[in-house]
Design a protein that fits this description.
The chain is mainly α and 215 residues long. The chain has one domain. Helix content is 81%, strand content 0%. It is globular. The two termini are 29 Å apart.
Length: 215
Amino acid sequence: MEIALITIFSTSFVLALSGALMPGPLMTVTVSESSRRGASTGPLMIFGHGLLELALVIALVSGLAPILVRDDVFIFISLTGGAVLLWMGISMLRTLPQLSLDCQPAGEKKSRNLVVMGIVLSAVNPYWLLWWASIGLGYIMHSLKFGMLGVTAFFLGHILADLAWYGLLSFGITKGQHLFSNDFYRKLIGGCAVFLILFSCWFFFSGVQKTLDVI
């Protein structure tokens, strides 16, 4: 049981880190605000981001639990999640040469509340919605095999990955961008891309295995 929970936590951490590393609205604002508001910018943004994700996880577990345990839903989510993971991994590998940490914010407007900004930027990000509708939901289903402890391990691994990267990013920008080279960033993305592709194989295997069991 303990080994299973540690595995859920660890894989959730790496999986979430793969998403956190990719440029997006949340990262762009974090980069632009960190230079003006200090190293606390990233953690505050992720606090808002985490509140939204916690509410979503609670809603999925509370209201959708009976649906999640159905075999047909398990098969659909596993295969869909595997396809999305594979697509994400391949896309990340293809974009490696162009990736850069030099994010350019769209404007110079000052955010009044970083926590609220973290919530808003997450909610309006199509990539975030796609991730939770497929990969996140699929992983919750697997975590539910170990009850609420499994879901807790999944969520802690997920949110701590976001906090670790965005906290480090804000700190690096505050202390000097030379701490993060584009080469180092690309290596991180490449490693995560390989992990996503391997993880997609596990999702596919789970879906096919369940299909064979049902048949």
